[in-house]
Amino acid sequence: MVLPIRRLAQQVSSLGAGDGPEASLQPEALHDVGVQEFAPLVRAFGDLGRRLNERTEALRMLNGRLTALARTDGLTGLANRRTFDVQLSEDWVRTRETGQPLGVLMIDVDHFKPYNDTLGHLAGDEALRAVARMLIAAVAGTPYLVARYGGEEFVVLMPGAGRDAAEAIAQDVRRLVETLEIVHPSAAYRRLTVSVGVAVAMPLEGDSPDALLAAADQALYEAKAAGRNRVVMAASAVSEGARKR
Questions:
Q1: How far apart are CA 178 and CA 75, in angstroms?
Q2: Where are the beta strands (DSSP E) in the chain?
Q3: pLDDT band for position 22 (50/70/90)?
Q4: What is the pTM of this model?
């Protein structure tokens, strides 16, 4: 009788240690030695093991969803600011090591506050979702990351994109948002538009990606100051290697 009890204890210990499905209790291991009195207990522990495994799997799936939510903007479904910051750091190091350029677009929805104030926040939210869809369409088939930077600002991270490629994507973004034909009563164009600042750099040892973002942000400011609904390339110098890609 000692052997079946020992087996039962070992299986219960494995179950408590969370060793996975293989730790479930096996009634036949005790039936073989003729100790039928233990069968109900073994079945009870077996049921408990199955329930624990089911709950463990449910928790694993929930953790996966929470991880995804932590990386995603709830309104647009794009990557969020935190995800962008992490990816920017990684791409900065990677492109520096491979000798590739790194491009960034800073995108702002023109006159968004008046749009929100006039048509309401629900309309504003839907407009931001529509802009997000156009950004995704503009980078379709590329490895570029599109993220919501905050409020009505978006950003596109483009590893490997030189000046010409980055500007082409920026113009696509601007045109695609125009095609939405979202009516904006208080805007000069009478429709929702975006302004885009573009910056491209060849990351070098000792440089910071913050300078790249600052250049794109300055270009965005110049696009807005020049009348909005336009693309401006950052005035900062770009190496010939980045310019030719």
A1: 21
A2: 102-109, 145-150, 153-159, 194-201, 231-233
A3: very low
A4: 0.71
